[in-house]
Specification:
single chain; 155 residues; mainly beta; four-stranded antiparallel beta sheet; three-stranded antiparallel beta sheet; 7 strands; elongated
């Protein structure tokens, strides 16, 4: 596994994600634990962050989380379940995006992260650890970048 991350992308904060494949329920449990050091998007030096998208690419199921006002360190503790065969996860990509809520204008993209077979470094290792360790919750911090995952815009 290549341990290096792509340094050409701007770092926009960090997000802790938990992954667990449940063999009993035959699906993937995705947890958004918390964010830290998010890029400030508002003039007051804070943001009103929320996780807009948690999607397994090709499944086109998007999930929205609640907004956290005036912070750069929101705590979410939201979990989502995707019913999917374990062997099918090897072909899927998980995309998570974080946004700043703005009243009266379009929301600002703070950052995103993609995990899965085409990821690199710790993002790929987290995905493989989840696949190797059924029924065990694996939590990891990931760096958010300014790259907007592709499937977020289509739908």
């Amino acid at each position: 596994i290549d341990k290096t991350e792509d340094k050409s992308l701007e770092e926009r904060g960090r997000i802790m994600i938990s992954l667990k494949y449940s063999s009993q329920k035959a699906g993937l449990l995705i947890g958004i634990v918390r964010c830290a050091h998010l890029a400030a998007m508002d003039a007051n030096g804070f943001s009103d962050p929320y996780v807009k998208t948690v999607s397994l690419k090709e499944l086109r199921k998007k999930l929205n989380l609640r907004q956290n006002k005036g912070t750069v360190r929101p705590s979410h503790r939201d979990e989502f379940f995707y019913e999917i065969k374990h062997c099918d996860l090897t072909k899927k990509t998980l995309e998570v995006t974080v946004w700043d809520y703005d009243i009266g204008k379009s929301n600002d993209f703070i950052g995103g992260v993609t995990l899965g077979i085409n990821a690199k470094g710790e993002r790929l290792k987290h995905w493989f650890d989840c696949l190797k360790n059924k029924d065990k919750k694996i939590e990891r911090w990931h760096t958010l970048t300014n790259e907007l995952p592709g499937s977020v815009l289509s739908d």
